[in-house]
Amino acid sequence: MASEFKTQLEKQLREKISQKAHNKISDEAYVIKAMRFFDIYDSGVVTYSQFHQALERIGIYYTLDEIVPVLQTYDPEGRGKIDYIDFSKYLFNSVVLKAHQTKLTTEELVIETSE
């Protein structure tokens, strides 16, 4: 049951992110942009609560209790935090973005991903 919910949540995330990104930036970059909004220390990680807020911001509504078991699968160390670059990589089966390594702005990211 939990794996079905995880699959459903991941599918919803991919669909919503693709809709919101509107081909202006890559889906992966959109995830990073959305999560960075809640990453007040620019640490590359967000708490489960911050992740929950990011989901609501893009129109995916579940309770925190519903998503915690799913988030725990992305948090193998059990820190209560999600590395959103790794999450984006997993969600879209992409390589780790140069943006994470160099802290590119959204505008620079558009240029980098379109080259």
TrEMBL record:
EF-hand domain ranges (all copies): 26-61
SUPFAM superfamilies: EF-hand (SSF47473)
Gene3D superfamilies (UniProt xref): EF-hand
GO molecular function: calcium ion binding
Transmembrane segments: none
Protein name: EF-hand domain-containing protein
Organism listed in the record: Euplotes harpa
